[in-house]
Write a structure and sequence with these properties.
about 500 residues, mainly alpha
Length: about 500
């Protein structure tokens, strides 16, 4: 009963008030108490279980930002906290909402009923988080007022749950925060697979748990590290590279006894030696190295790749690390070393039957070779890169296990530095079309943040398209202006090449 008691009481109050209330002004975000009450009442009758919380969330955030929160808004904090804990599985956020609601009504005896409800709701959230001693203390302090407000039966039921918490056990109406976190991570991975990276970030963020309480410390570290990797991967997919790098660093540091520093000796928690922990660290270090290489931070890339080695225990992880080493060598101009590393990784992948890795090794080798050739001759032939890229695209279309978006982007960028302007324009157009299709698909169903960042992430593809369009036009029409002189040219609008 207690699981829904607060929500039921609050909803009843809303419905009673909304029946007699005049219709509020047509406004996307209700900005006064009565308007919020009516909007929530209408949302309740819509049949959408999440609609009331959407109204409450937007109203509370706007009122907080505009400084309009008053004590009577405590009912909205109580309703939102109940929904967040029970339906969204986020007891940490629910606890924060109850504390903010209590701060609004501190010392106001007219709000005693909702003060009792908020304190008990906070106790349930603390128990979910494994902070049993705090949950017991908070519930026992709230019991007298809770008994006066909700009656003897409800108070006795609560006392029974408090007795369980005192023994370190969850009640039937509690869910372990670790269980909730694992469920959130599973949903986050599913959203990321669908291209809804904003939703993935939100869900993985909800899985991050504060330290302390009765939760197993090692499991807590592992869950938080996994959540940060999902956040980092999604930020990287949205083009937020600096934020992604910071999230990878946080993921790594969850499994270290002190925040990881490049070049420093790290002391790792036992979870880092478990298979799941080692895989997570290898992946995080590799992706951090990739971002560092792209940003020109060679020292960080080298340190990350070195640190990844003891955790790269699977053949796949070892080959991945080798390929990043090859990319780094190629960026540093050591073409021979880069090609030798790629050849070695290709041979290992071939022995292991890793067809996708073999194909990508050929693609990387073609990129390195073309880059080296262009340094010697600006008219270098890109046909080998085109053949390797098409092979990678065909395998990706057939199996779904290669990133076609990244391959098209790489093709467009590398070809834009060659004389084959028609091929460069073709791949740039295909890259842009694919990104727009992804935005209209899974990413189009994403959160507002996710859709906005996905649109921003198209900027690089659009700039490459405009640049290659200009180059193709300039090759066909010598009247086009010299692209080295201006940011805007006569044939097409483009950005200067950096």
């Amino acid at each position: 009963m207690m699981r829904r008691l607060l929500l039921a009481v609050a909803w009843a109050a809303v419905l009673a008030l909304s029946v007699s209330m005049a219709r509020a002004q047509d406004d996307d975000i209700p900005r006064n108490f009565d308007a919020v009450m009516e909007a929530v009442g209408e949302a309740l009758q819509s049949g959408d279980s999440e609609a009331p919380f959407v109204v409450l969330n937007r109203a509370i955030r706007t009122a907080r930002a505009e400084g309009r929160l008053t004590p009577d808004w405590s009912i909205f904090f109580a309703m939102a906290a109940d929904f967040i804990r029970n339906d969204r599985g986020n007891p940490a956020f629910a606890l924060a909402l109850t504390e903010e609601g209590l701060a609004l009504i501190a010392g106001d005896p007219s709000q005693d009923d909702f003060a009792a409800a908020l304190r008990v709701s906070g106790a349930y959230a603390l128990a979910d988080l494994g902070r049993m001693d705090e949950a017991v203390a908070r519930a026992r302090l709230a019991l007298p007022l809770f008994r006066d407000t909700f009656g003897e039966d409800a108070a006795e039921e609560l006392e029974g749950y408090v007795a369980l918490w005192a023994e370190g056990q969850l009640s039937a109406f509690n869910t372990s925060a670790l269980e909730l976190a694992r469920d959130a991570l599973e949903r986050a991975r599913s959203q990321a697979d669908e291209g809804a990276h904003g939703m993935a970030i939100s869900l993985a963020g909800a899985a991050l748990l504060p330290p302390g309480g009765n939760l197993d410390a090692g499991t807590l570290r592992a869950v938080n590290a996994e959540a940060e990797v999902i956040i980092a991967d999604s930020l990287r997919a949205l083009g937020r590279t600096q934020d992604a790098a910071n999230a990878y660093l946080r993921a790594i540091s969850h499994l270290a006894q002190a925040p990881w520093q490049p070049g420093a000796d790290a002391v790792w928690w036992p979870e880092a030696d478990e298979p799941e922990g080692a895989d997570l660290l290898a992946n995080a270090f590799h992706r951090l190295a990739g971002l560092a290489i792209s940003a020109g931070a060679s020292d960080l890339a080298i340190a990350a790749l070195e640190q990844s080695q003891p955790f790269s225990r699977s053949t796949d992880a070892q080959i991945t690390g080798m390929l990043y080493q090859a990319v780094l060598a190629g960026r540093d101009g050591d073409t021979d070393r880069a090609l030798a590393i790629i050849a070695q990784s290709r041979a290992r992948a071939l022995d292991e039957g890793e067809t996708a890795t073999v194909i990508m090794a050929d693609f990387y080798a073609a990129q390195v070779s073309l880059f080296a050739a262009l340094l010697k001759d600006s008219h270098a032939d890109p046909s080998a890169l085109i053949a390797a890229g098409e092979a990678a695209l065909a395998h990706g279309q057939a199996t779904g296990n290669l990133d076609e978006t990244a391959i098209l982007g790489d093709m467009a960028r590398h070809l834009s530095r060659t004389d084959d302007t028609r091929a460069a324009l073709d791949y740039a157009r295909r890259s842009l079309i694919r990104r727009r299709a992804l935005l209209a698909g899974g990413a189009g169903q994403d959160s507002g943040f996710g859709r906005q960042e996905a649109r921003r992430a198209q900027r690089g593809a659009l700039e490459t398209f405009l640049r290659t369009a200009h180059d193709a036009a300039a090759q066909a029409d010598p009247e086009c202006e010299d692209p080295s002189r201006f940011a805007y040219y006569g044939c097409v609008i483009a950005t200067p090449r950096h």
